[in-house]
From TrEMBL, chain B:
Protein name from the UniProt record: SDR family NAD(P)-dependent oxidoreductase
Entry keyword Oxidoreductase: yes
Stated family: Belongs to the short-chain dehydrogenases/reductases (SDR) family.
UniProt entry tagged with the keyword Oxidoreductase: yes
Amino acid sequence: MSRPTLLTGWGRTSPTAATVVRPRTVEQVAEALTRAGPRGALARGLGRSYGDAAQSAGGLVLDCSSLTGPLRLDTERDEITAPAGIDLRRLTTYLLRHGRVLPVVPGTAHVTLGGAIAADVHGKNHHIDSSLGAHVRSLTLATPLGELLELGPDRGDVDLFHATVGGMGLTGVITSATVAVRPVETSHVMVDIDRTGDLDATLELMGDGPRGHRYTVGWIDLLARGGDTGRGIVTRARHALRTDLPAPLRDEPWRVRPRSAPAAPRWAPSGLLNRWTAQAFNTAYYNAAPRRRRGRIRPLDAFHHPLDAVEGWNRLYGPRGFAQYQFVVPFGEEDTLRAVVEDLARTGAPSFLAVLKRMGDPTPGPLSFPRPGWTLAMDLPVDHPGLARLLRGFDERVLAAGGRLYLAKDGRASAEVVHAMYPELPAWRKVRERVDPGGVLVSDLARRLELV
Amino acid sequence: MRDSLGGVRSVLLLGGRSEIGLAVVERLLLEGAREVVLAARGGVTDPPETLTVTGANVHSLDFDAEAVDTHAATIAAAVDLVGDLDVVVDAFGVLGEQSAYEADPVEAARAATVNYTGHVSSGLAVAARLREQGHGTLMVLSSVAGVRVRRANFVYGSAKAGLDGFAQGLADSLHGSGARVLVVRPGYVATRMSAHVEPAPFPATPGQVADVAVRGLRSGAGTVWAPPVLRPLFTALSLLPRPLWRRLGR
């Protein structure tokens, strides 16, 4: 065995050591699973979950980002079969050459397909298209018992399929998947931008958008106080038609321009992103946005993944790292959302990137996060004084409102709270025990939240 | 498992009656710890109320600092009780009268066993466990008395000097393993153990030391001083010429 490697999530907090292997084939995945010691094994993708979901202290971690296999696009059925290790950037680039897109992409394209399914990621179109899991037609799962299972919503062990979508890698290692794709006319979107003066205006604009907007997202200035509390920028978009494009783009409507990504500095001091810099940034960002703009043509990837433009932006939070807090509350519980926004504004917890989205139909995954309602996500530096207590207070409110936290973002919630938020956890455990009776698959997240 | 905001689930306190150690445990409980093991001679059957009010599970283990051949088993028993050890607070020690130690070399050697040798056996056993689980922090309660050993308490001070050096070496050996060591160097702390000693400048309460120690846990520091002003003070004192140092009354 090689030397242990320290692993963290994207938030760069809580490093723990594991033995890392990098399987390239399904056979190597199966072989690695048989080698798991008493501390267990876990698949990891590109490490974009923020907390401790993709690390397993003292265990064996299968870095699946090199896991390859056949890539097949079926243009009749509009579906693609791809290895779990492919990242969504490469997959999207490939699909656009054939005039297709993934029906759901998360805020970064630097995730593997396997990881995206394991977290049942959502995008800016959840209110219309649900999460990625809703579009998975089948997947192959390597289990600790040495089986290679074909699963889908209508084939194989259906319960296990649902337990795997959003199952955080704790039911097996996804080695490949077949996902529905959507034909598009161009590689661009038509974007409408509105600046909103307060939270009510933000919610109204997002909640009642005109037809034709597949994508809706709100950025909220969590440091604006008083009458400005909850002000933001609402961005809504639809896929651009060929006739929407200016003449020079029309000849190559699916063209993808490579983006050059400048990298964040290797090191930044703790406290660089503080209340004052956050306030200055947020104010400038807000004021720079147009009050109202219609029909701006933007490349898809720039629209979906604005932060991918700065490589390693997570380093800007300094050596101590940062936490992301993302919750969803049902429609009708806007007061909970308002209370959280007001508390954050009052305490001055410095959040640069607070993103509000509307969620629609969920997938049947017992551990899948999305539920109909409002979801708010924010990044917070962990050294903000009193942050632990503040977030525990939010947990209580979210729970009381019938909401829940997103496991792929969490690194600090308590087991009790999460168990109450995911009432289907016992049922999920039963399914998991069928395929992993020895309890081989385990992550730091699973240990901390007593999921397994 | 340490969470992203520095909170932990389980704590093992070696020296289960140590006032500083208990103050550290109390703080970790308020931040959400759920499992506590108090290890002391004869076990700790009557844990302070401040530990039980949070609803955490408080376990007790028999732990004899002088019985170095039992320490690995004690650590294993703690793991059996609570699973992974997120934080181990190494807080046991004795502080006798220097003049009494000088009159009774056997007693002095016994104190040195508790204050140094016992930490070597327990510390190595803890380190082996933390290395295996790939995470965890060993907090070692050292003392400024070991930074530069003084005439007035050199039996105690020399053991602390050994302990401090051991802890630093152990920290280096654990580098990259996911586990770490936090060395806490308090000055004079008013406790039962030090009741017979005259207060020194910059005294601290057990609670103040615990605050500094818990901050160190969160920040990932290697060494913390309690109060922090002792760091520049002892840097200066370590430069004092020997004849002057020798004449220091205390």
